[in-house]
Amino acid sequence: MASFLPRAAPRALRFAARPVLRTPAFRRGFATPPVAEQPPPNFQAKTTHGDIDFHKYIEGSWAILFSHPADFTPVCTTELGAFAKLKGEFEKRGVKMIGLSANDLTQHDQWVNDINEVANTTVSFPIIADADRSVAYLYDMISQDDLDALATKGGIAFTIRAVFVIDPAKKIRLTMLYPASTGRNSSEVLRVIDSLQLGDERGIATPIDWNRGEDVIVPPSVSTEDARKKFGQDNVREVKPYLRFTNVGK
Ligand code: BEZ
């Protein structure tokens, strides 16, 4: 990934000193990475909204933690602007937002001004200052290519673009990992939250490309007879004995 760095990236970013490795292993995934259905590791950090204890910040709420490789980089700037504009959509779903980028608070504050200007918005969620990448290592959000290259070529290990969706019981319900070169799809983040929340409320699953309001799937653990009792006699469509659709509205 290091070779992908845009030429315009700040010199400090391209030639930054090799970070201190916080994990004993030298491969992503060796150090008990947070996985679905597990509690997210707790940490204390400085953010653009003051110091936080992560577990206290997310207490009792749905939350997304989304990471960025670096401040003042183009893809990240577009992503932060898009997430900021969707504040109302996340609030409607009861989701607290928190970003992370591998720079310090002074840079974050200057970068937030840029994002607000470029996207014509106001970033109103906190951004964690993870200049030493301690949270990135804790959450296994470091580029494997960079880690492999560190041993032979030195350089910098970038934080990849990760999204962790965490539920009010403090379980990681979904993880997305993207390379630095590919910006995320903010609608997809909302869509998966809709799927998880509706699944929890109504005991259903959601098919490929599903969006709110469309037909959902009766899970295999529920018989067609029970599904008809639950969702309505005329509201279960059996395509195959193992593929049943119903509609539970928006
Ligand atoms: C960016 O455009 O956000 C970016 C690209 C490469 C490395 C890090 C960040």
UniProtKB/TrEMBL annotation:
Transmembrane segments: none annotated. GO terms for biological process: cell redox homeostasis; cellular response to oxidative stress. Pfam families: 1-cysPrx_C (PF10417), AhpC-TSA (PF00578). Residues 34-198 form the Thioredoxin domain. The active site is at C76. GO terms for cellular component: cytosol; mitochondrion. Keywords: Antioxidant, Oxidoreductase, Peroxidase, Redox-active center. InterPro entries: AhpC/TSA, Peroxiredoxin_AhpC-typ, Peroxiredoxin_C, PRX_1cys, Thioredoxin-like_sf, Thioredoxin_domain. One of its GO terms (molecular function) is thioredoxin peroxidase activity. The keyword Oxidoreductase applies. The keyword Cytoplasm does not apply. Belongs to the peroxiredoxin family. Prx6 subfamily. Thiol-specific peroxidase that catalyzes the reduction of hydrogen peroxide and organic hydroperoxides to water and alcohols, respectively. This is Mitochondrial peroxiredoxin PRX1. It comes from Paraphaeosphaeria sporulosa. The lineage of its organism: Eukaryota, Fungi, Dikarya, Ascomycota, Pezizomycotina.
